[in-house]
From TrEMBL:
Keyword Transferase annotated: yes
Species, as recorded: Roseovarius halotolerans
Catalytic activity: uridine(54) in tRNA + (6R)-5,10-methylene-5,6,7,8-tetrahydrofolate + NADPH + H(+) = 5-methyluridine(54) in tRNA + (6S)-5,6,7,8-tetrahydrofolate + NADP(+); uridine(54) in tRNA + (6R)-5,10-methylene-5,6,7,8-tetrahydrofolate + NADH + H(+) = 5-methyluridine(54) in tRNA + (6S)-5,6,7,8-tetrahydrofolate + NAD(+)
Stored Gene3D superfamilies: FAD/NAD(P)-binding domain (3.50.50.60)
Name of this chain's protein: Methylenetetrahydrofolate--tRNA-(uracil-5-)-methyltransferase TrmFO
GO biological process, alphabetically ordered: tRNA methylation; tRNA wobble uridine modification
One term under GO cellular component: cytosol
Keywords, comma-separated and alphabetical: Cytoplasm, FAD, Flavoprotein, Methyltransferase, NAD, NADP, Transferase, tRNA processing
Name of encoding gene: trmFO
Boundaries of every MnmG N-terminal domain copy: 2-363
The protein's Enzyme Commission number: 2.1.1.74
Cofactor(s) needed by this chain: FAD
Family named by the database record: Belongs to the MnmG family. TrmFO subfamily.
Amino acid sequence: MAGSEAAWQAANMGVPVVIHEMRPKTGTFAHRTGDLAEMVCSNSLRSDDDEQNAVGLLHWEMRAADGLIMAMADRHRLPAGGALAVDRDAFARDVTQALRDHPLVTIEPGEINDLPAEGHWIIATGPLTSEGLGQAIARETGREALAFFDAIAPIVYFDSIDLSKAWMQSRYDKGETEAERTAYLNCPMDRDTYEAFIDALLAADKTEFHEGETAGYFDGCLPIEVMAERGRETLRHGPMKPVGLTNPHQPETKAHAIVQLRRDNALGTLYNIVGFQTKMKYGAQTEVLRMIPGLENARFARLGGIHRNTFINSPRLLDAQMRLRARPHIRFAGQITGVEGYVESAAMGLLAGRLAAAEILGRDLPPPPQDSAMGALIHHITGGAEAKTFQPMNVNFGLFRPVEGLKGGRRGRRDRYKAYTDRAKSAWRDWLGETADLIPS
């Protein structure tokens, strides 16, 4: 995500770009293709609400900056209520093709295992930095690179789901069209079924960690077993919450918990289980997941899994231009910088691409305004966060400077969020206007 967006932005500023991609020659645990911007954990870019949600605001800013990731996401959008979900295969294929077609972009296959000694570079290795490059980064940074574990959710074939038990509905019927209002497939559980499911989940065989590894999970992508271990009701108040949904098969009966699935491709043949990242072993997964009403005979296009994810201590290692302080010809972008999520990763790629291109062109690109979503996020990772306790961060309104005179607390939240997004859009428009002369017409 980040590397693709960085290349697109730099090339559109007139700078020739070479993308080095090790796949498909050298694969990873999670990727299936050699396409750029392949989505592995989920097919969702989360909320598209640019007035009340910080992620939606990032969408807006990237669209305003002619971002490639958002353009391709809009082209391959799938119904998902208020979220932006995409047909992941078509999305990655068209991102790759757009970059191949760009006259200033070259894609070179092959793995890079060392930090380059000269030139202008952006390291945007996504959630799975290769072992060789990871070791090179660790050597350069004094082994200050940190690690946590990320999990991916299973994908189910739609024709194996029992629709006499499941039904189609978005939470609170959210969406402007019928397709949006019926974007999710829902599987209800009564109390006894839920309790039995939790028992099986806790008892299931799990992936074990290698010696020396620690399970430092990112809270936004916790495996369901880890959530269940925090309390039997945790899942029922998280990905299995039953609110805003009515079972048409039993409209008078309120479900104790509900598992949701979201369409994963344009054909509607694949559905992923929302929020069900897991570290259960494959055999245990099929047994436990088939306890879910409607999934008793489910066939899986992909089972869930867990992988190591490396990120650097950006507040200590990077300057405000996203350059490695020890080697300023190298920039970092994306998840390796300590942002979490596809959108945040792509946004940091957008900034890194523009900053690198401006430097190559001999121009001073002012930093993005802190009141914008991108500015708040880059400020956090390059200095706003405490280096000693730095952990991966999603964009959120807690990173924004307060707007004076607004009511705090939950009651004032809607007005406060609207004020944040209005201020951010104005600041972002001004910044794009100031830097427009850097973009060739």
